[in-house]
Amino acid sequence: MSRLTIYRDDAPETKLLDTDRPRQIAETLQPLGIRFERWDAPVVPPKDADADTVLDAYRPYLDGLMGETGAGSADVVRINARTPDLSALRDKFLSEHTHSEDEVRFFVHGQGAFVLHIDSKVYSVLCTQGDLISVPAGIPHWFDAGLAPDVVALRVFTDTTGWVAQYTGDEIARRFPAEIPDKAAA
Length: 186
Known about the structure:
With 186 residues, this protein is an alpha+beta fold. Helices cover 20% and strands 35% of the residues.
C-alpha cells in the first residue's frame, strides 16, 4: 500500500503527516512539483516478463507521459537478490543526492521508498505496484527498496546522463531510514 509520511528534518521521531490515501499523497506532493499517480493497467505482466512485454503493457501510459514531459524513452530495471553488487548499490541509493533531470519511475512489481528533503521537511513516499512518481531535477533525495528488494520498475528519461547522482554529502538519510513493510504484510 502506498504511503506518505512527512517529518521535520530535525525531528525524525515526529510525524507531521502519515497517509495511505493515494489522492491525498498526490495532492500533498503536487505543490512541490512532485508527480504521484496510480496507473491501473488492464494487464500486469508477470514479474519475470521480458522488457519488451513490460513496456508494451504500459505503452499507452508511457506514450502519454512522454508526450507531456518531452521524455524520449523508457526502459525496465530490476532490483532483486540476483542484482550484482546489491549491497554497494543500496549504499549508493541511500546517500542523499540530486539529479540534473527528473527521476521518473513506475513500479510494475514490488515496492520502494523515495525520501525527499525539501524546505526543512522530509517526505518519505513508499511506492508500490501501480505507482508513478516523478522527482523533479535538483530535489535532494535517497531511495530504499529494503534489505531484500524485489522490484521491477519502468524508468522514463530524456537523457541518461541526467541520472548521474550528485551527492550532497549530508548524512540526513542515516537519520530517516525508509519504512519498507515486510513483503508478506504488504
